Amino acid sequence: MENKDALAPREEEADVHFEPVIKLTEQVDTKTHEEDEDVLFKMRAKLFRFDAPSSEWKERGTGDVRLLAHKETKKVRLVMRRDKTLKVCANHSITADMRLQPNIGSDRSWVWKVAADYSESPPTSETLAIRFANSDNAKEFKKEFEAAQKTNTALSGGAPAAADPSEEKKEESEEKEEEKKEGEEKKDEEEKKEEEEK
């Protein structure tokens, strides 16, 4: 004889079925704003930016650095996205005034200054450093970067990039200071000659 307790749990097969609340049938097109550009160069690298207040390099991300040429204007820009998240960590035009400098102590790394990097809003002036897996990759990047500079300079009519106004003022004041020193030295020499003649 089976002992049936009304409070004892019963063994039942659960047939659970859930209907989705939202049906995801349509695909959304996401635009990267790179659809109208051709990839001229692509290589894996790690990007850093110099943080002036703390005087140290901060990592921006690891991913593929690409040089993209617009199909119509032919202008070339540098774009780099982080792995996995695909967040933009560098986005700027390559201008004639940019100089790739070797990073001290490394033959696989370059440093350069950017007047306006559009990876974040608003655009900011940055000092960037990029490091590659080996020196050959770094040399290849430099070659392509400088070729892109020449392309952009030619497209802008061959005009040299506008100089930084603060640098021009600094140079002018240095020239005036030198002229002033030279004038004072000449005056001192003339006074010495006059005293010797007396």
From TrEMBL:
InterPro entries xref list: PH-like_dom_sf, Ran_bind_dom, RanBP1-like, RanBP1_RanBD
TM spans (from-to): none
GO biological process: nucleocytoplasmic transport
Stretches the record annotates as Disordered: 147-198
GO cellular component, one term: nuclear pore
GO molecular function: GTPase activator activity
RanBD1 domain: residues covered: 17-154
Coiled coil regions in record: none
PROSITE patterns for this protein: RANBD1
Bias type Basic and acidic residues, positions: 166-190
Cross-referenced PANTHER family: E3 SUMO-PROTEIN LIGASE RANBP2, RAN BINDING PROTEIN
Name by which UniProt lists this protein: Ran/spi1 binding protein
Organism listed in the record: Lentinula raphanica
